[in-house]
Design goal:
alpha+beta; Arc Repressor Mutant, subunit A; three-stranded antiparallel β-sheet; two-stranded antiparallel ribbon; 43% helix
Length: 95
Amino acid sequence: MHITYMKAEYPALASRVRLQIDPVTGAPVLLYPEGLLELNETAHEVVKRCDGRSTTSEIATSLGREYEVKPDEIERDVFECVDDLVRRNLIILRR
């Protein structure tokens, strides 16, 4: 993972990927042509902010404010989550 590189990137859902709540379980999920990925609460909060308009650093800052955590304390978790979803081709990074 290249954290320095990722700080200035704008994560967004990849095409044909949708964030929604599973009607049966009530869990947040990412739907994509090959399947479904259930998200935990933290990943859901990160993915909700992956709109292509906020950088990864801005997402960490926003979550830090909301949960009263210093951005540098939450930044690593945000970057790891985004990196994992990029590797799965569920999120793309834009400059």
